């Protein structure tokens, strides 16, 4: 019996498979398509995703394959109305204090290569037709080339997109709606100020907008925008129909197109993310507007959150109670994200007076001015980069010490011989003490087979929110499980025993 069956080989499924493979968990990953996607939309890779990639030892290579976005240019036609320096806008907050432009199709190829290096290959043209949770395992029926195969898996993970077979098989609600606008996306060769090879351009007009990302591998630009109202009722438009509107809005000259597609955007969250031994992740569980480039990054966050829990349970390093926290943690964030991106999206694309003021005054003139202040820039980075995600309401989150609570992402501290993210590459539970651990704490860590890291106290530790000589039990995904200012051994032991952590 394979331990894990993953259906869907987009970024969410690939990261889930890669994480599990690196942890030595047997798995199969299938996809009904003939190969990886070629007409992807996601471009932005945020800091939290790169922090997870550092745990997989692939972050530096991912950064090298993408483009660090240095500046945001806000344009109205041929004129630049505002500019905001992005660069290392999150300096001191993350090892990756920038937004990375890395096209999803190339991103998927990169993940496929890393997965293959781990000994796993995607089974293309293989479709999940049905499944039954038998209590002790999941029985799934797969179809490929007209042949049917029945497999047994300890768990089934549906990473199969907005039209998820797994979600439908579970009978889950998918409440929400569809935005009235149609989006277009194109990889095209263009010339003009808005066709930068290194920066992000946002072009705003009275009736619409277009965002332009640089794509490293092709030297082309990725254009993402709203289909002009005049084309909405003409059926499925060709790029030749849209190109004149792009050229007029951006004042660029388009010389050729690599690919082009149109799509509708939905905003929905599934009623549940888990039933028994079956889970849904990524677009199968939540879809929302493209504001802030959150979709792909959120799916990857789902994958990491679930992967370490599945690996711990299957390796006997935690009991199944930890699996209950997946839905609690990730669905709460998905609902919050859909709500906030929905409001932001309506504010940007609204055709009323408010929408026009946002596009013509607030974004071009006010936003760049505010982003000139370091506190505002860091606050914006905290939000967009997803490093502020916390799980304080989770059963796995206990205690408070200093400014930090159980469930918070472990703040990054670097310098003076310290890099407290370096030990996270183990992707295992560990104890952090910023200062000095007691001898009893060292003995308890050894007893439970937990790595203990003592970091020399310096002002940066206090600035990050840590309390000196305090116990921080860190989860495999870099979030704090338990915080206790007294290094309370009974409290730590009780926490570990509650979830069976460190049993082997």
Automatic annotation (TrEMBL):
Protein name: 3-(3-hydroxy-phenyl)propanoic acid hydroxylase
A matching Pfam family: FAD_binding_3
Alphabetized InterPro entries for the sequence: FAD-bd, FAD/NAD-bd_sf, RIFMO-like
Residue ranges of every copy of the FAD-binding domain listed in the record: 3-340
GO molecular-function term, one example from the UniProt record: 3-(3-hydroxyphenyl)propionate hydroxylase activity
Organism: Bacillus sonorensis
EC number in record: 1.14.13.127
Keywords recorded for this protein, A-Z: FAD, Flavoprotein, Oxidoreductase
Cofactors demanded by this protein: FAD
Class of the enzyme per the UniProt entry, highest EC level: oxidoreductase
């Amino acid at each position: 019996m394979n331990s894990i069956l993953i259906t869907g080989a987009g970024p969410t499924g690939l990261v889930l498979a890669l994480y599990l493979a690196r942890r030595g968990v047997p798995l199969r990953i299938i996809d009904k398509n003939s190969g990886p996607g070629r007409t992807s939309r996601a471009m932005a890779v945020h800091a939290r995703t790169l922090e997870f990639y550092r745990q997989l030892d692939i972050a530096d290579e991912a950064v090298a394959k993408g483009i660090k976005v240095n500046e945001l240019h806000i344009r109205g036609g041929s004129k630049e109305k505002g500019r905001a320096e992005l660069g290392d806008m999150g300096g001191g907050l993350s090892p990756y204090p920038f937004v990375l432009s890395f096209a999803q199709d190339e991103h998927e190829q990169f993940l496929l290569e890393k997965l293959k290096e781990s000994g796993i290959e995607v089974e293309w043209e293989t479709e999940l037709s049905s499944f039954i949770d038998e209590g002790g395992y999941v029985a799934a029926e797969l179809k490929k080339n007209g042949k049917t195969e029945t497999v047994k898996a300890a768990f089934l993970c549906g990473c199969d997109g907005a039209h998820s077979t797994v979600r439908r098989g579970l009978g889950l609600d998918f409440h929400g709606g569809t935005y009235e606008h149609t989006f277009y996306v194109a990889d095209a060769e263009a010339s003009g100020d808005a066709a930068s090879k290194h920066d992000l351009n946002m072009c705003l007009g009275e009736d619409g907008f277009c965002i332009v990302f640089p794509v490293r591998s092709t030297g082309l630009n990725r254009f993402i925008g709203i289909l002009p109202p005049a084309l909405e009722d003409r059926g499925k438009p060709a790029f030749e129909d849209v190109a004149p509107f792009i050229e007029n809005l951006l004042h660029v000259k388009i010389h050729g197109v690599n690919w082009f597609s149109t799509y509708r955007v939905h905003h929905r969250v599934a009623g549940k993310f888990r039933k028994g031994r079956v889970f849904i992740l990524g677009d199968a569980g939540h879809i929302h507007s493209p504001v802030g480039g959150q979709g792909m990054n959120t799916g990857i966050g789902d994958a990491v959150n679930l992967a370490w829990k599945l690996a711990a349970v299957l390796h006997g390093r935690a009991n199944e109670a930890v699996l209950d926290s997946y839905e609690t943690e990730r669905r709460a964030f998905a609902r919050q994200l859909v709500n906030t991106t929905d409001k932001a999206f309506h504010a940007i694309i609204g055709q009323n007076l408010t929408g026009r003021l946002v596009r013509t005054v607030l974004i071009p003139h006010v936003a760049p001015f505010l982003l000139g202040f370091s506190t505002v820039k860091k606050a914006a980075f905290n939000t967009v980069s997803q490093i502020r995600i916390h799980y304080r309401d989770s059963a796995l989150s206990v205690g408070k010490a200093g400014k930090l609570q159980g469930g918070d992402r472990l703040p990054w501290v670097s310098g003076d011989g310290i890099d407290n993210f370096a030990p996270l590459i183990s992707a295992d539970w560990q104890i952090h003490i910023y200062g000095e651990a007691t001898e009893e704490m060292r003995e308890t860590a050894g007893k439970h087979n937990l790595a203990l890291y003592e970091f020399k106290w310096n002002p940066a530790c206090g600035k990050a929110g840590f309390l000196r000589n305090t116990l921080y039990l860190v989860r495999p995904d870099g979030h704090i499980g338990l915080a206790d200012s007294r290094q309370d051994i009974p409290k730590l032991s009780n926490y570990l025993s509650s979830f069976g952590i460190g049993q082997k």
